[in-house]
Design a protein that fits this description.
Layout lengths: L7 H14 L10 E5 L2 E3 L1 H13 L15 H8 L3 E4 L7 H11 L12 E2 L2 E6 L10 E5 L9 E8 L4 E8 L17 H7 L12 E7 L6 H21 L12 H10 L6 H13 L2 E6 L5 H12 L6 E5 L8 H4 L1 E2 L7 E2 L5 H10 L5 E6 L6 H4 L1 H9 L2 E3 L14 E3 L4 E7 L10 H5 L2 E5 L3 H9 L15 H9 L7 H15 L7 H17 L6 H13 L4 E3 H15 L4 H6 L13 H17 L1 E3 L4
Parallel strand pairs: 10-17, 10-18, 11-14, 14-17
Antiparallel strand pairs: 1-2, 1-3, 4-5, 5-6, 6-7, 7-8, 8-9, 12-13, 15-16, 19-20
């Protein structure tokens, strides 16, 4: 029975205590979560602890029920809390069945198995060279490995037809921490008690659950058991945080330092713009001089923040891409049960991102404009906004070759496109530019001099920032809209000027500029100058749509320049023979770009934001 005097204040105190101490072993929920500030809590545990603040002692969880329609859930929803079913990532039963079936064959291949589950790296082994007597599946949190660490593990003792879910302990090296489990039999003792002889291997690992493979329990029970041991594992690796790689808040300075140490010459302003743009809208276009580091920056960031290479794909766009098939594949018209997946792995990336919502995943499209983007990328552009699903095939009841009938755009999937401009490439339409941030890469003389003076061999950044990956996704999901009055006033001024050439912006762009304004300071708290943040927004969201003839653009560029500079912009900036110090302008970054476009307009009779 739940006391009636538990209030929202008591429930909030319970959440604070769970944040401080973590979720206790054995107290995780099986089906539902209480969601608050993008974090998930066991509903019954919250109520149990809340009772301590209202009535002096915790409630015994066996004294009341949880689930839909119960008094417990009614109490939570009445006080404004959201209850959700657990995330789809918790379903592993189908993978386990595939593992057990394959273990009975001589097939040792493992690439087709999911390699990340509940933020843990998954390793599957059927043996090296010859089939193993005890195939296994381990779930690993860095820095644990199967040769040095602790990890939940499935061990299939084929000769006995028994599957053991165990608190795994590495055999070859001492792990950095140990399981904090009391009165639990190890596998050696279990075999002895059941008169099974001696286990061939893994005798020191602790038994969590034993299953008869010929009579497995339901998928729901299997998943519940795996969820429980994984949560215990996560608790231990966080509590023993001195030796484990626990979650950290996203820190742009860490990425900046990692780039510097690896020999990459990127300034902090560029890295702030890069990450803030991704956290504003998960579609970023990098344009500018060929060889200026566009692809390298994208590649370096994803390698730095991802714990596993399966979290990203770098795909070169082909000049013959005329439809979505190079990215999404197609059903085999000769075999109704087969789906032809592209070799670049984009489908697998989408599926994994959906299954692992707390970790970021990245698709890098290199030289994105070698083909018409609107042709091969139309489905993606549509679902980014509509949140609808992409239809892949017509069999709604079954997957084909592991591909579902339809797929959504997961909010933890970030797209980065690189662009070079020459006679072999295509321009972007307003539809594409409207849905992205555009960052232009240029190299200054001082930057080239520094590069030539200290040109180091590049080193790897693999996984250095992976403990900030969850925080990165949380920053994206909790983004806010700025209410800066100065920003609103400036947006109206720029709208009026751009409207004259049909390049005005709509509600979407205005909304995303307000988010970018906030995210810049969220990523780098040192950026507090409102004019500087507005300057970045103008450069990335408003100017990219500008292109056209002298007759169309000349007056507009002068008007835009006048908004960026308080003096006579034509005589003092555009037509000046001296080197211009753009830092004196109100919006120097944008003014420098507008000036280049104006000079190109006079020389060629045409100008575009995208320069060769």
């Amino acid at each position: 029975m739940i006391p009636s005097n538990i209030t929202k204040e008591h429930l909030m105190k319970a959440i604070v205590e769970i944040d401080r101490n973590g979720i206790r072993s054995g107290r995780h929920s099986s089906t539902y979560d209480l969601v608050y500030n993008s974090k998930r809590y066991p509903p019954k545990l919250v109520i149990s602890i809340a009772n301590k603040f209202s009535n002096g002692e915790e409630l015994d969880p066996n004294e009341f029920k949880g689930g839909g329609g119960t008094a417990a859930f009614n109490l939570l929803t009445k006080n404004g809390f959201r209850i959700e079913r657990k995330l789809t990532q918790e379903t592993y039963f189908s993978e386990l069945k595939s593992f057990l079936n394959q273990a009975k064959t001589d097939n040792l291949k493992t690439k087709h198995f999911v390699n990340i589950f509940q933020d843990l790296k998954v390793k599957v082994s059927f043996g090296q060279g010859v089939p193993a007597r005890i195939p296994w599946i381990s779930f690993l949190k860095s820095p644990n490995t199967t040769s040095k660490g602790i990890y939940p593990v499935y061990l299939f003792y084929k000769n006995l037809n028994k599957l053991i879910l165990a608190y795994g302990i590495s055999e070859t090296n001492n792990p950095p921490v140990m399981w904090d489990i009391i009165n639990q039999k190890n596998i050696k003792d279990y075999f002895k008690s059941e008169n099974l002889g001696r286990p061939q291997r893994y005798g020191d690992s602790l038994v969590f659950k034993v299953y008869d493979v010929e009579n497995l329990p339901s998928g729901e029970e299997i998943d519940k058991d795996l969820h429980e041991i994984i949560e215990t594992y996560k608790d231990i690796t966080i509590v023993k945080g001195n030796t484990m790689d626990s979650k950290k808040d996203f820190d742009i300075l860490s990425f900046y330092d990692a780039c510097s140490n690896a020999g990459l010459k990127y300034n902090l302003e560029l890295l702030t713009r890069f990450t803030s743009s991704l956290l504003t809208k998960p579609f970023l276009i990098l344009t500018g001089l060929s060889g200026s580091g566009k692809t390298k920056l994208a590649q370096s960031f994803v390698q730095w923040i991802c714990q596993d290479r399966s979290q990203y794909r770098i795909v070169p766009v082909g000049p013959d891409w005329t439809n979505r098939e190079p990215l999404l594949g197609y059903p085999n018209s000769l075999n109704s049960k087969e789906y032809i997946k592209p070799e670049n792995g984009v489908i697998e990336l989408l599926i994994q991102a959906i299954r692992t919502p707390s970790l970021p995943h990245f698709l890098i499209l290199d030289e994105m404009n070698l083909s018409h983007v609107e042709r091969y990328f139309a489905d993606f552009l549509s679902v980014m906004e509509s949140k609808e699903k992409i239809s892949l095939h017509s069999d709604n009841k079954n997957e084909k070759s592991g591909v579902p009938a339809e797929i959504e755009w997961p909010d933890n999937l970030f797209l980065i496109g690189t662009v070079n401009i020459d006679e072999t490439t295509y321009m972007f339409s307003p539809k594409v530019l409207d849905r992205s941030n555009v960052i232009e890469f240029r190299i200054k003389k001082t930057e080239l001099e520094e590069f030539l003076a200290d040109n180091k061999e590049l080193t790897s950044l693999d996984g250095e920032g992976s403990n900030m990956a969850v925080s990165f996704c949380e920053l994206f999901r909790t983004k806010s809209i700025s209410d800066s009055e100065l920003l609103k006033e400036e947006l109206i001024k720029f709208f009026e000027v751009l409207q004259k050439v049909g390049a005005e912006f709509g509600y979407r762009t205005a909304n995303e500029i307000q988010i970018l304004f906030s995210q810049l300071s969220e990523v780098n708290p040192e950026i507090i100058d409102e004019n500087f943040k507005i300057d970045i927004a103008i450069m990335q969201k408003l100017l990219p749509k500008l292109h056209g003839s002298r007759r169309k653009l000349e007056k507009v560029l002068i008007a835009l320049g006048s908004l960026c500079y308080e003096g006579d912009v034509v005589s003092e900036i555009f037509e000046s023979d001296n080197d211009v110090d753009y830092s004196i302008a109100k919006y120097g970054l944008s003014l420098e770009k507008i000036t280049r476009m104006y000079k190109s307009l006079l020389q060629n009779g045409f100008a575009s934001y995208a320069e060769a």
